[in-house]
Amino acid sequence: MSAPADTLRELEARLRDLEGTAQRTGQNLDAALAPLRAEVERLRGEGHARLTRWERVALARAPGRPTALDYVERLCTDFTELHGDRAYGDDPALIGGPARWGGVPVMLLMGQKGRDTKSKIRRRFGMSNPEGYRKAVRLMDLADRFGLPVVTLIDTPGAYPGIEAEERGQGWAIAESIQRMVRLRVPAVCVVIGEGGSGGALAIGVGNRVLVQENAWYSVISPEGAASIIWKDAAKAPEAAEALRLTAPDLLELGLVEEVVPEPLGGAHLDPDAAAAALGEAVSRHLAQLSALGPDELKAERSARFRALGSFREE
Amino acid sequence: MSAPADTLRELEARLRDLEGTAQRTGQNLDAALAPLRAEVERLRGEGHARLTRWERVALARAPGRPTALDYVERLCTDFTELHGDRAYGDDPALIGGPARWGGVPVMLLMGQKGRDTKSKIRRRFGMSNPEGYRKAVRLMDLADRFGLPVVTLIDTPGAYPGIEAEERGQGWAIAESIQRMVRLRVPAVCVVIGEGGSGGALAIGVGNRVLVQENAWYSVISPEGAASIIWKDAAKAPEAAEALRLTAPDLLELGLVEEVVPEPLGGAHLDPDAAAAALGEAVSRHLAQLSALGPDELKAERSARFRALGSFREE
Amino acid sequence: MALDRFFRRRRPQQQPGAEMPDLWTQCPRCKEGVYNRDLELSAHVCPRCGHHLRLDAGQRLAVLLDEGSFQRQSGRVWPVDPLAFEDTEPYPARLARAQQKTGRPDAVLTGSGTILGLPVTVAAMDFAFSGGSMGSVVGEEIARAAEHAAGAGTPFVLVAASGGARMQEGALSLMQMAKTTVALEGLAERGIPYVSILSDPTTGGVTASFATVADVIVAEPGALIGFAGPRVIQQTIRQHLPEGFQRSEFLLEHGMVDAVVDRREHRAYLRSLLGVLTRQPAPEVGA
Amino acid sequence: MALDRFFRRRRPQQQPGAEMPDLWTQCPRCKEGVYNRDLELSAHVCPRCGHHLRLDAGQRLAVLLDEGSFQRQSGRVWPVDPLAFEDTEPYPARLARAQQKTGRPDAVLTGSGTILGLPVTVAAMDFAFSGGSMGSVVGEEIARAAEHAAGAGTPFVLVAASGGARMQEGALSLMQMAKTTVALEGLAERGIPYVSILSDPTTGGVTASFATVADVIVAEPGALIGFAGPRVIQQTIRQHLPEGFQRSEFLLEHGMVDAVVDRREHRAYLRSLLGVLTRQPAPEVGA
Ligand SMILES: [Zn+2]
Ligand SMILES: [Zn+2]
């Protein structure tokens, strides 16, 4: 990062020290610290606007960035996780179940990364196997049957590239999930909350509305993957990130998302509660708008949205 | 078998010798052999009417009894076997695909036993794994999509009782196949052509019409299985067969099948062409009758048929 | 993730009319003696080791439903002997014995009730009656219960406990697998939730029909659940069965059940799940 | 089971306007030299070892369709450079080179034709154009072809040959997976058959969208078919890949494709299959 970023880091550290002192001693320093806080905020805003695409990717992967379940804990009640594809296994990297989102009954589908080393490994760093996509299909069946809007939180580096995943039809499972989502007769709102890696992300990304958090990325290929192909060198990922135009503002400009959901300055990990509040509000607002449409309209509107995507000239 | 059966065997053998002589020498013996042939036929008829239930079970399992594919070769054109459940594997014990049955486009689903030692093992003696039932579901999806009547030929000792089958949800797969068949909006005609073993048979047995070949059996449990439970002795299978009332005439009397499809005297294996002709005619006739019904009627009629099955008294 | 499982039962209900012939019961797993009264208070789960003791249908509904809410629907349909089945004894003699032992016509109890205020239609199989085997009556009662749920628009909750289809009614028993599936179709068509709870044991034709076509499948901890019985499998493959094979936790791992839920949590779990699936407003906390 | 595959082609068709710069081609597998004329006569399958050589889109349709029946639909839609993408060279320069090499705007050729008299809509991907990669134009042409098939009521036959989504159009390429699936939905709704033929290679986003949501999936012998490429998998798991991994025969065994069909049989296979799926009367023998 640039020099102002270093300044910001230092100021943030000092501010934390002072706040610690305040807490320890019981001394109220709020008034005394207000100007310093304002300056930190200003620097954050400045720095944020200047972030490179690669820096945004780093924020999307930042340690402590809220995972899907972190948002569920803050925004949902009555979440019942339903497990399994009823055919082979249960995938902890793609989870879901019925819940109330801000009180409204919905069906959740979520890419889920671990929150500590053990669960990160168990959840395959958010990379799903075919069982995950097949579970998603099953839960969408339930959503349609019970008239529950589908809310998806996307956070995956991509589908898992493993031998067993291929044996059990990784491509087939993703395609079926996409197709199932096209067929939904209930509202579907999708949000990329971290990484939106390729087909593994799109599998639960065919919504009537697709939103993206401010520091999330969404791409046809990871920057590292692109760099490996182009320059045979994954270390050139920053260059690839620039070329791929995978940040939230890029996606909005390309017309691929309806809205960028704001994050607290510096990233969602700095204030998960504030990040959740913004996410909750945005999803609830779109759900409310979509609730006016009937089943046929919802499918037709979603189909038209995706049918129109693409950039070409016609002679 | 009884003494008359032994006499019949001997006469059959002599007759075959004489027919061989006629063929070898070119001498036309038809007139000379006619009375002997008539006597053999008479004895067959007599013996057949007297068959015990266990003897019928033996006929259903007789070496050389036509398998599903033997009938397809004789009755169908344009059969394209479609493989796989698109999730885990392909089951050679439960096969199917589109074909023309006596010229009429249908979707076939069939329990398939091997015809030699190697293929018997490969086809698990007609015992399906979950993949077989999931393939059946997939093919029923296609049948509904394209308006193809479903014709099933049932021939299985039962679903395969294996560790892997249980791991991959044998019970679930059978239940889904039953449910899918309940939901069909096309005509479905099912025929038990050999063994109708328990849930593994019913999985493709939920038809608008259910027929049974004269020497086939259909039961909640195999005679050996029942004997093992009742007497802890599989050798008591003949007694169990009597108690279970699992023969074609029994099933007709119990109201579980619409029709018994006749076999050549002595069993289908003695004259596969004649067996096929009778099977072909029966299925075609029922398909023609059902073609008058619309999709909703077909589902409703099939549902009503099965909803009514059961024997109880009401107070 | 059970964020708001606040609907704990304030106190477990006594089974209406339950007698206590002995003061205590020995836990089949940990061998600890447990006072019967304590067992009832813990939904017949061993307070020491968590073992889920088998319940008869009456005990099951007492654990599941709000006290006093149960309205029985089953009971007017009685089994007959369509095959004149006789093995080591005639089928009617077997039936009479089971009827006397359980006080029920057959191996199922159905009706309606409420779970923490939410109206449901319920069916509980009775393993105590001939191993919970499914013949014409079990099929008919479950079909009627499903149809009642569809008509009333209430979620349907079924508790499975069965060795499978009943041999003594031959192919008629087999057909109950299709019959019950037909009846459940009315729920799917109307978008009414159907939840099955698989208890120890659930095998054979029950596993291959109504128990597993549910929208949500819950298993009790440690229950034996499968299609083929372990003994049959062992005879066929002549191979050792892996540890935990066909148990609830094994099935969860293999993607077959939605959750393994402790019996003491069933009411809260179902209330929370069904409240969302029926798109009802969130209940007041503490309701 | 191909009981009546009597629809053998009497003689293979020459590709219209094909040139023969060299007299023979070396088979990439058996290394045998084969006269180009013989190769064309055998649908570009090595007569010696059965290896299926890669075809460009024009060759593919020549093999598949009745001679002279093809009516091109694609070609009016041209790629642009929405991201101003530049890696080792600008995207427009890449495109120009591929266009010059293949004589097509992009990596797909679509239209209508007949297969042994049966009218079909077809789309063939062109691996020769930038590895058959799928960007906006490929997505648009396939979507239009699917819509044309739905409108005309003819079966849709698509031949996949692709390394996956096209990096140079970023997330726009990714969205083609959903777009094509949307367009194919019209076929499913109207009960019009969709058959995909997977040729060597079919990977990435193509495998995870339109290529695998077909009613019937046929693979050519020995084709590489998968989602993740073998190199990516090997890098991730650092493990040796099994022999035959991700090949057609492997996928058949794993239940993913309906059949592995020799290219020389494709016409007969499709005619027989589609005739039944469209419930047409059986064609006269020898037609
Ligand atoms: Zn205990
Ligand atoms: Zn060769």
From TrEMBL, chains A, B:
Q: Name one Pfam family in it.
A: ACCA
As recorded in UniProt, its EC number(s) are 2.1.3.15
InterPro entries registered for this protein in UniProt: Acetyl_CoA_COase_a_su, ClpP/crotonase-like_dom_sf, COA_CT_C
Catalyses which reaction? N(6)-carboxybiotinyl-L-lysyl-[protein] + acetyl-CoA = N(6)-biotinyl-L-lysyl-[protein] + malonyl-CoA
The cellular location(s) given in this protein's UniProt record come to:
Cytoplasm
Task: Provide a Gene Ontology MF annotation, just one.
Answer: acetyl-CoA carboxylase activity
* Alphabetical UniProt keywords: ATP-binding, Cytoplasm, Fatty acid biosynthesis, Fatty acid metabolism, Ligase, Lipid biosynthesis, Lipid metabolism, Nucleotide-binding, Transferase
Give residue ranges for domain CoA carboxyltransferase C-terminal: 35-289
Signal peptide positions are none
Its pathway is:
Lipid metabolism; malonyl-CoA biosynthesis; malonyl-CoA from acetyl-CoA: step 1/1
Q: Which family does it belong to?
A: Belongs to the AccA family.
What job does the chain carry out?
A: Component of the acetyl coenzyme A carboxylase (ACC) complex. First, biotin carboxylase catalyzes the carboxylation of biotin on its carrier protein (BCCP) and then the CO(2) group is transferred by the carboxyltransferase to acetyl-CoA to form malonyl-CoA.
What is its quaternary makeup?
A: Acetyl-CoA carboxylase is a heterohexamer composed of biotin carboxyl carrier protein (AccB), biotin carboxylase (AccC) and two subunits each of ACCase subunit alpha (AccA) and ACCase subunit beta (AccD).
| HAMAP family, A to Z | AcetylCoA_CT_alpha (MF_00823)
What protein am I looking at? Acetyl-coenzyme A carboxylase carboxyl transferase subunit alpha
Q: Which organism is it from?
A: Deinococcus rhizophilus
UniProtKB/TrEMBL annotation, chains C, D:
- The EC code for this enzyme is 2.1.3.15
Q: Which Pfam families match?
A: Carboxyl_trans, Zn_ribbon_ACC
- Specify the pathway: Lipid metabolism; malonyl-CoA biosynthesis; malonyl-CoA from acetyl-CoA: step 1/1
Give start and end of each CoA carboxyltransferase N-terminal domain. 23-287
Q: Which cofactor does it need?
A: Zn(2+)
Main localization (coarse): cytoplasm
- Superkingdom, taxonomy of origin: Bacteria
- Catalytic EC class: transferase
The gene is accD
What positions does the entry give for Zn(2+) binding?
A: C27, C30, C46, C49
Q: What assembly does the database describe for this protein?
A: Acetyl-CoA carboxylase is a heterohexamer composed of biotin carboxyl carrier protein (AccB), biotin carboxylase (AccC) and two subunits each of ACCase subunit alpha (AccA) and ACCase subunit beta (AccD).
Q: Which protein are we looking at?
A: Acetyl-coenzyme A carboxylase carboxyl transferase subunit beta
Zn finger region (C4-type): 27-49
| Purpose of the protein | Component of the acetyl coenzyme A carboxylase (ACC) complex. Biotin carboxylase (BC) catalyzes the carboxylation of biotin on its carrier protein (BCCP) and then the CO(2) group is transferred by the transcarboxylase to acetyl-CoA to form malonyl-CoA.
Subcellular localization(s) per the UniProt record: Cytoplasm
> Does the keyword tRNA processing belong to this entry?
no
| InterPro entries tied to this protein | AcCoA_carboxyl_beta, Acetyl_CoA_COase_Trfase_b_su, ClpP/crotonase-like_dom_sf, COA_CT_N, Znf-ACC
